[in-house]
Write a structure and sequence with these properties.
- This protein is mainly beta.
- Helices cover 11% and strands 32% of the residues.
- Strands 1, 3, 4, 5, 12, 13 and 14 form a 7-stranded antiparallel β-sheet that branches.
- The longest helix is centred in the last third of the chain and has 18 residues.
- It is flat and about 95 Å long.
- This is Ssu-2 homolog.
Length: 380
């Protein structure tokens, strides 16, 4: 049986690490100040950037290089370790002792009838990709230099340092020679926006008298002096507030922003031998690494003793190349094969036969039916 766990939209079943702190400092890195660019139809057309938006830009070197077969197949046989009765017994006693409602008698008094080595392989392919998108962005214009002269470089020709391999990361940089100054679209170049609380009037209804001007039939409201209205606290009575887009400047420095996303796309497959063991328990289990191969584009494993592993590797490599080669730049691939030892133990106790599993290099134990539990466990 083959159990696949693919994660191409996210790094793994759990999120990968973020960019390492201080991976690099770029003077063009775009600060996140909350400004937004004017509508696209109000912006000039920049050659090479006619179609801006969330769709990824195909890399300039369209398509990935095909993996090269190794010059000579490595001749190696993998020794499959077998667990001993002593180790299986010790793991079972430890397991029973960790359960407050389990009697230790079955674990101590059991008699082995059979030990079956059901070793399971875990294949993992990591494809570290880089994708790029572009969009208009802006910041308040305070008289800074406007880089609007010259030919803007193509999106994939802008050098951006690559962070640590196989770690998710995002960066954004300003595209050179795309800057232009525009009037603020949010406030119509005024630097101020209408106060939404008082609707540009500078006054709001008095909360003490609910706008009635009196707190009782013969008592005038002292808060509003009987007018029913007070000065707006949000704008101080001005009726307008500083524009949040241009920060009161009335102008925006607009530019094209290049967004770079590095992603570690992971394909994981567990090749199970029909052991009856729930393979989802293996997610956090450490295996014994039998093979590690890393290259810009890896070649599928072809010489592993288990043919199902070879078939899985071939399928995974083809799938990732088809999925990413035309939309991203594949920077590096890494494939690993781990052996996860699983032993199915048959034992007799109290004239009945039972089964448990010892799995992983941690020698954890799994059993569906422990023969001696207290009443509370049986009810649960």
């Amino acid at each position: 049986q083959l159990f696949c766990f693919c994660n191409s939209d996210q790094d793994e079943a759990h999120p990968g690490p973020s960019c390492p702190a201080g991976s690099y400092a770029d003077p063009n890195t775009v600060p996140n100040d909350g400004a937004t660019a004017p509508p696209a139809d109000a912006m000039p057309v920049v050659p090479g950037y006619e179609s801006l938006g969330p769709n990824v830009i195909p890399p300039s070197d369209f398509g990935a290089a095909q993996p090269q077969a190794p010059s000579r197949a490595p001749e190696r046989r993998f020794d499959i370790p077998a667990i001993t009765e002593e180790l299986a017994h010790e793991a079972f006693i430890k397991y029973a002792s960790s359960k407050c409602c389990y009697s230790s008698k079955p674990a101590k008094e059991m008699v082995f009838t059979d030990l079956q080595s059901l070793n399971t392989y875990r294949y993992r392919l990591e494809t570290f990709t880089e994708s790029r998108t572009t969009e208009w962005d802006s910041e308040p214009y305070n008289g800074q230099v406007v880089d609007g002269f010259g030919v803007a470089p193509a999106p994939w020709s802008i050098p951006v340092p690559i962070p640590s391999l196989f770690q998710d990361c995002k960066k954004s940089v300003r595209v050179p020679h795309t800057s232009t100054v525009k009037g603020c679209h949010s406030c119509l170049n005024l630097g101020r926006s209408a106060c939404s609380r008082c609707v540009n009037s500078g006054r709001t209804r008095c909360g003490s008298c609910s706008g009635m001007g009196r707190t009782s039939a013969d008592q005038r409201c002292n808060m509003c002096q009987g007018s029913g209205m007070i000065r707006c606290h949000s704008c101080g009575g001005a009726g307008s507030i500083t524009c949040k887009t241009c920060k009161g400047q009335g102008k925006l420095l607009c530019f094209i922003r290049l967004k770079i996303t590095w992603k570690n796309n992971i394909y994981v497959a567990v090749i199970d031998k029909g052991s009856g063991f729930p393979v989802e328990l293996l997610t956090q289990i450490t295996g014994e690494k039998l093979l590690t191969d890393m290259a810009p584009v890896v070649y599928p494993v072809v010489t592993f003793p288990d043919s199902s592993v070879n078939a899985t590797s071939e399928s995974a490599v083809k799938e990732h190349l088809a999925q990413f080669a035309t939309t991203c730049r594949i920077l590096q691939q890494r494939q690993t094969i781990e052996l996860i030892p699983i032993t199915r133990v048959h034992y007799a106790w109290n004239e009945k036969t039972h089964i448990y599993f010892v799995y992983g290099t941690e020698h954890k134990v799994y059993t569906k039916d422990y023969p001696a539990k207290c009443c509370c466990c049986s009810i649960l």
